[in-house]
Design brief:
A hairpin with a 3-residue loop joins β6 and β7. By secondary structure, the chain is α+β, with helices and mostly antiparallel strands. The strands form five sheets. Strands 4-5-6-7-8 form a five-stranded antiparallel β-sheet, with helices on both faces. Helix content is 43%, strand content 14%.
Length: 623
């Protein structure tokens, strides 16, 4: 009796949510928005054999906005609220674990679905759960198995439809269509008696399931039924159960320590006094309808009045139906001396006003401009006539109107990261085992006061090119080393970052041998720290004095020939730059007597161009 009462209460709340959605026209409006986005814009119209034209300008507007928000690399960064090095180490491990979870959960594709559906219908949601049961099985299986499931706005039912913060909801219900056999199997696993299991029967899909009707479902012997996932917060954590219309087939249980709902969502645009959002499609539908109507009227008018109309004397023609047949012969009665033109003539079409075409173009253009998705904003820039920085600046300027949506997406990812962290803590009662086998103790994990930051980096080709050029300029001007340049490259860069890393690894492997050889040491009187000193090697054999004019560097031949090691990094960069600029013209030749005149001329040019600015003094003369 207790289960039946609980079930009746859950279903009653679900019915109340359905009544609210019907009153606000949510089901039909969401379906209409999807149809207009997908191009089914003459839905339900009986047009006979006539194929009505359509000019879908809604889809390119939405796709532009979706791309501008979702086409970014997303990284979740955990950090402690204090400077405790132990906590910082744990947060660093969680950051790496979150990156692996992002890849494993295919979040790069799911984020596109969330942003796309939020743009179309106003809001979309993601439900997170751990496949492990919060019981003793967690003790033996300490590796999280998080799953994420996309939830349509029409499948989410809230206790308070005026409260936008999901965490303030008294309860949340997620409705889904599940095969009856699967529900009965779960009921049996949960220990329900056979009499209760038999009460789990199929029901008809209704308008509450977006894009799903009874005809769309695969017809099986047992069919499908509506299953409700009911969640509410308690003092001990989030309690949940699953129910059909007649049976609670998964009894209420509580996930201890979980103090957030495992549901996060993105609202495209805030709606005053509502927990839901407003999408792009809804406000464009009236203009889209008028554009299609105008286009249809123009098409019908052209078909009827833009082609010549034949007029003939039916008493004179033997087969008038052949007038429309190419190359046909037509007999004429009593032609005599009368011209054929007196029997058959063509009426010239009347000119059609361009007002309808102008109205159509104006509706489309104005709609796109008002949505911030005109030609200037959507990237109609010739990349051969503009630099990557200029294109990037134009794109960033046009994206200012989407700052609200970018912030909403970032908040969605932050909420998702917090849910992950809370699920890890709640389920890892004996510790959290990371992918590399490291075990994080539950006490340390639970004691963290984490700060979650989201790093969003543009990955469009122009942004990547801009960052590459900035790094190359910094390297060419010797502001960074080659090692720093390689590490700063994007993983999706056109520059072969992996190959550069392999080269650096080989050099590091050879570093001990180079350090033993003493390559590039500064040899001078007194000997610098770590340098070779003749006075120390041969004490009492020489008398040493300091004369700056005679100080010089001494290198081993094999080192200076290859410019190997960090001591010669600057020389190596200068050599690489030389070959980049003049590699096709340069050649190596042994110095011979016939080169002397050319060498003296070069030396003189260098001597003259190297004089101190504004004087006749040369650095070599001052030495």
């Amino acid at each position: 009796m207790m289960q039946e009462k609980e079930c009746t209460d859950i279903w009653r709340r679900y019915q109340a949510g359905k009544d609210h959605h019907n009153r606000t026209n949510m089901y039909t409006q969401a379906e209409k928005c999807h149809r207009f986005y997908e191009g089914d814009q003459w839905h339900g119209l009986q047009a006979g054999d006539e194929e009505l034209p359509m000019l879908n300008f809604i889809k390119p507007i939405c796709r532009y906005k979706i791309v501008m928000v979702a086409m970014n690399d997303t990284a979740i960064l955990f950090s402690p609220m204090d400077n405790d090095p132990k906590k910082a180490e744990i947060c660093e491990a969680l950051t790496a674990f979150a990156a692996a979870q992002w890849e494993k959960g295919k979040l790069d594709s799911k984020k596109w679905a969330v942003v796309k559906n939020a743009c179309i219908t106003g809001d979309h949601y993601l439900y997170c759960f751990d496949e492990r049961t919060p019981s003793e099985s967690v003790v033996t299986d300490m590796t999280p198995r998080l799953k994420m499931r996309l939830i349509d706005k029409t499948a989410l039912y809230l206790a308070d439809e005026q409260e936008p913060n999901l965490e303030e909801q008294e309860w949340i219900i997620i409705a889904e269509r599940v095969p009856v056999e699967n529900v009965r199997r779960q009921a049996k696993d949960n220990g329900l008696p056979e009499a209760e299991i038999r009460r789990i029967v199929s029901d008809e899909a209704d308008e509450t399931q977006l894009g799903v009707t009874g005809a769309d479902e695969v017809q099986t012997d047992s069919g499908k039924c509506t299953s409700l996932l009911f969640m509410r917060k308690t003092d001990g954590g989030v309690a949940f159960c699953r129910s059909t219309q007649a049976v609670v087939y998964q009894p209420m249980q509580t996930i201890r320590g979980l103090d957030v709902y495992p549901v996060c969502g993105m609202r495209w645009e805030e709606k005053m006094g509502s927990a839901r959002g407003v999408g792009v499609v809804e406000r464009l539908i009236p203009n889209q309808i008028e554009v299609n109507r105008t286009l249809a009227r123009r098409a019908i008018c052209v078909k009827r009045y833009s082609f010549p109309t034949v007029v003939y004397d039916q008493d004179k023609l033997l087969a008038p139906e052949k007038l429309g047949v190419v190359g046909a012969s037509i007999g004429v009665k009593n032609l005599n001396a009368n011209p054929v033109g007196s029997f058959v003539q063509y009426l010239s079409p009347a000119p059609i006003s361009g007002d309808a075409a102008n109205l159509q173009a104006e509706l489309v253009g104005t709609s796109r401009e008002l949505e911030g998705a005109g030609e200037a904003a959507t990237g109609q820039v010739d990349p051969t006539k503009a630099s990557g920085e200029a294109i990037k600046a134009a794109r960033d300027q046009s994206a200012i109107s989407l700052n609200e949506q970018s912030a909403a997406y970032k908040q969605f990812v932050e909420d998702l990261a917090m849910i992950w962290y809370k699920l890890w803590v709640a389920y890892s009662v004996r510790g959290l085992r990371l992918a590399d086998g490291t075990l994080l103790p539950h006490a340390e994990l639970e004691a963290l006061d984490v700060d979650i930051k989201i790093d969003i980096s543009p990955i469009d080709p122009y942004s990547v090119l801009s960052r590459e050029l900035s790094l190359e300029n910094a390297l060419a001007q010797q502001h960074i080393t080659f090692e720093e340049y390689v590490e700063a490259l994007d993983d999706n860069s056109g520059v072969p970052k992996d190959k550069f890393r392999a080269i650096l690894d080989r050099r590091r492997g050879a570093a001990p041998e180079q350090s033993e050889s003493g390559a590039g040491q500064n040899i001078g009187p007194g000997g610098a720290a770590g340098a070779f000193s003749p006075e120390e090697a041969l004490p009492g054999m020489f008398a040493f004095s300091t004369d700056r004019a005679f100080a010089d560097y001494l290198y081993r031949t094999r080192d200076i020939a290859a410019y190997a090691g960090p001591a010669l990094a600057k020389k190596r960069r200068e050599t690489n730059k030389f070959f980049q600029l003049y590699g096709s013209e340069a050649s190596f030749e042994p110095i011979a007597l016939d080169h002397m005149d050319e060498l003296r001329a070069y030396q003189q040019v260098w001597f003259e161009t190297s004089r101190r600015r504004g004087t006749d003094e040369h650095p070599l003369e001052l030495e």
